[in-house]
Structures are given as C-alpha cells and as structure tokens.
Amino acid sequence: MYHVKFTTAYKKSYKLMKKSGHNISLLDNVVDLPRQGRLLDDKYRDHS
To answer: CB 3.0–4.6 Å: which of 1, 8, 21, 44 could bond 37 by disulfide?
Structure first.
C-alpha cells in the first residue's frame, strides 16, 4: 500500500482539468489503485 501525497502542483492541475471539462473519474481511479495496494496496468506505467 502506498500513501499518496497530493502536491500543490497536482492540486492546481487537477482543478484546471476539472474546470476544462476533462473526465476526472478516470484520473481518480488511476491514482486510487496504488493506495489500494494494486499494481497499475501497463498502459498507465512509465513510458520511458
């Protein structure tokens, strides 16, 4: 299990995405996976 710490930059980006009409529930689901102790899907992992 991980503890997710929301930084000021994340909060600002989140607010901007919400204001511009993006689907926030998708982001919430991805951020919530590590908090539940589950691994991220391959499509959400680092691309480098």
So the answer is: 1
Burial 8-47 (b: 16+ CB within 10 A, else e): eeeeeebeeeeeeeeeeeeeeeeeeeeeeeeeeeeeeeee
Q: What is the pLDDT of residue 48?
A: 74
| Cα distances (Å, whole numbers) of residue 6 to 42, 48 | 23, 23
pTM of the entire predicted model:
0.71
Distance CA 32, CA 1 (A): 10
